[in-house]
Design brief:
ZnF_BED_domain_contain, RNaseH-like_sf, five-stranded mixed sheet, alpha/beta, zinc-finger, single chain
Amino acid sequence: MCGAAADATRRVGQNSSQYKRHLLQQIIFATHRITPASQSSPSDDSAIDLQSHATPKRPRLDQSIIPKAKVKAVKELSVGFVIDSDVPFTIFEHKFLKELFYQFDHELALQIPWSSSSITRELQKIFESKADIIKAELGSALTKIHISFDLWTSPNRLAIMAVFAHFIDKFGNQQSRLLALRRQLGIHSGENLAETLFEIVQLWDIRGQVGTVTSDNVTTNDTCLSYFYRQLDLSIRPADIKARRMRCYGHVLNLVARAFLFGKDAESFELESDINGMRGLQEQDLRHWRSKGPIGKLHNIVKVPSLRGINRRA
């Protein structure tokens, strides 16, 4: 074996993944008749897009044969795909994906700005245009705008407030619109929650249309709505605030079910059951539940077969 061949063999052994990736790329190029950057020819349009140092110049839209409405629709669909699929904004910068679009419709693909910054700008434009449509819907509603909100903690420990609007539109149809997913800063006091809620209502220009507000049955939400309604109307009476404060039925039902299952001290009962589970005291946990009567026995009937199935698989 000559010295050059031996040196090449050593390089392949040291970094085989790089050579495999290069070989795979060359196979794809050959299969789809794509000219690599070092061998690009003027007659091969797709080769331009696969060169990292050369991007095709986008012609002016008014000089293109593609209708503006079609270009706009493709832009919106592209943004919708990014948001709905939860993929990076750089997804359309991938050279093979770009080449795929050029193969379908080269002229149309040239009209679409695929960079992450372009997608970001397009997202902002779409949000602003759709927000105007929602504002018009809210302004022409046949009913008051009823609000529901809740707090959620994200996996990275950020507090998020979700706010929905519920109303009957001018055509008589029931509508629900997400108004905000706003990060809740500071402590979760009623005053802070009220401030966030009031800012969202002002943003959507519905201050004079707010009807009832639905939220979880916790005292901080009582305080929140007391402050919130007073920001809307300083002359409002406490009785009117109480009448407009709606309790979340799902939350109330959950509290009723927990009281029915566990009695007054539900947290202590659940804690003891969790401790039994962590210590592997299955029989003791079954007796613990059986002491709650028919409901506890039903719990054991449902849970024991699943536990035995887990033990058999183990």
